[in-house]
Amino acid sequence: MIKLGIITVSDRSSRGERKDLSGPEIRKWAHEKGFQVITERIVPDDIEKIKLALTEFSNMGLHLIFTTGGTGFAPRDVTPEATLAVIEKHAPGFAEVMRSRSLEITPRAMLSRAVAGIRKRSLIINLPGSPKAVRENLGFIQDSLDHAIDLLCEGVSDCGSV
After folding, report:
1. Is it the case that residue 144 has pLDDT exceeding 60?
2. Residue 53 contacts by C-beta under 8 Å, 6 or more apart in sequence?
3. Which of 9, 14, 112, 147 is the most buried (most CB within 10 A)?
4. Residue 162 domain-assigned?
5. Average pLDDT for residues 129-149, to the nearest whole number?
6. Residue 60: which domain range?
7. pTM of the prediction?
8. CATH of the domain at 104
9. How many domains does the chain have?
């Protein structure tokens, strides 16, 4: 069973001023796919707090870590920079597919700065901040996730144990 963590990046949601809608959308999708959500966190648009959450989640041995939010052009959008600071290997295909398929829906998809990469045995993927875009992007990449996780865990008997 694939074990995952969800990190919502939002100043307002972290302060309780706005309800997080995208994190629950990821959780719903994961449940439908038979994945197990191990942990969730809401953090502000702060590069150090995002890096800390990503590091803690990957140290837990999660197979998959999704972030949602903070991938645009706004000055406080720093999720890609935090992700790039903690990954050990790039996995650009996920972001490339999400952007190219999203462009079929909206020309604003080219504004996404989302990245994906690997830290330890965890695949980290940045998702957009809107629930609609989260649903769409998860649909674009879901068929490759099982195989990606299998490859990350190859030859490791305790891969992803929590």
Report:
1. yes
2. 7, 41, 43
3. 9
4. no
5. 97
6. 3-153
7. 0.95
8. 3.40.980.10
9. 1
Per the listing, tokens 């706005």 go with 18
Asked whether the predicted pLDDT for residue 162 surpasses 70, the reply is: no
Contact, 84 vs 103, CB < 8 A?
A: no
Residue 77 lies in a domain: yes
The answer as to whether 161 is a domain residue is no
Q: How far is CA 142 from the centre of its chain?
A: 12
> Given this model, what pLDDT does residue 161 score?
55
Considering the domain boundaries, does residue 68 fall inside one? yes
Instruction: Give the count of beta carbons closer than 10 Å to the beta carbon of residue 60.
Output: 17
Which pairs count as long-range contacts for 9-13, CB under 8 Å and 24+ apart, including other chains? 9/43, 9/44, 9/45, 9/50, 9/67, 9/68, 9/69, 9/70, 9/79, 9/129, 10/42, 10/44, 10/45, 10/69, 10/70, 10/129, 11/44, 11/45, 11/76, 13/42
Contact 160, 65 (CB under 8 A): no
